[in-house]
Amino acid sequence: MTVTIVTGAGQGIGRELALAFAARGDHVVLAARNVGNLEATAKGIVSAGGAASVHPTDVTDPAGVVALVDRAYDDLGGVDHLVCNSGVGGPSGPLWEQEPAGWEETFAVNVTGVFLCCRALLGRMVAAGDRGSIVILGSMTGKRPLYGRSPYVASKSALIGLTRSIALEAGPHGVRANLISPGPVAGPRIDWVIKMQAEERGISEAEARAEFERDSPLGRLTAASDVAAAALFLTSDAAAAVTGIDLNVSAGIVMY
Fold this sequence. Notes:
Order of helices and strands: EHEHEHEHEHEHHHE
CATH topology of the largest domain: Rossmann fold
Strand content: 15-25%
Distance between the termini: 36 Å
Structural class: alpha/beta
Number of domains: 2
Number of strands: 7
């Protein structure tokens, strides 16, 4: 049995990821703060014939993250893959109007949360000599910033370096680590980003949305299913020689 932990699995990209891994046949450990959302994801998996377990977790809580990993090992015998998807959009506005609390919260979830999850799992994998993989969800904004999104942009940039460091340190133990940088993914979060971009730049929401679509050679936003497909590849045997990469899934908006 293949066991995959997906953080932020209660909604959006996280739910799509969880459903995709379950459809592949993995037992998916669903982690997030909102129990109701997690149970809804689990219901969708089970109704489709898959296997899932719900583990409410705050990724910024070191003890809670360790408990998540320990329980997966105790109940399921180990963990093969970790998909770090938990994240927050952070505040919106020019840097000089940002408050330290918003900056710190964004980094606590988007960066420290990833560190804590990887730290808790890698210690077990290395000690047991397990082979496995980690996929971290970044963003194209880590390389192509958006106006007024400095905390989010900086946090996603940090994940690029963190992923490469994990790949270097864990590689000798047979563990791979890769990052996915999605483009604007259709859904409530990008709708909010477009709304804030329009307000801050004095343009219409239609104009802001059109900019995202126009920048894509494919002329569209990214689908959550596109991101899930990339994660499935990176955790498969087909990607056995792939580690330390930053894979753009952005409909061509970012090509570097």
